[in-house]
Amino acid sequence: MSLQGRVVGVAHGVQDIILLARRHGVELEVEELDRTPLVEWRGGGGAWGLSEARLPMSR
Question: Which of 10, 13, 35, 50 has the most CB within a 10 Å radius?
């Protein structure tokens, strides 16, 4: 995953995207991921699903 052109980590799922973004000062909610211009989806081949992101998450 990259933020502003800088690699910040590897996301294996939706929760990873949320956590990596938060670590770098970007607050995103799961519900925003499919409509925000901040996220550009690449790869995953259908493996990215927002249903997995409905799981409880610790901050």
Answer: 13
DSSP string, 15-57: HHHHHHHHHTT----GGGTTT-TT------TT---TTGGGS--
pLDDT at 37: 83
Nearest residue to 3 via CA among 15, 21, 28:
21
Q: DSSP assignment, residue 12?
A: S
Whether 52 contacts 14, CB under 8 Å: yes
pTM listed for this prediction: 0.66
Of the candidates 40, 12, 32, 11, the one whose C-alpha atom is nearest the C-alpha of residue 23 is 11
The separation between CA 6 and the C-alpha centre of its own chain, rounded to angstroms, equals 15
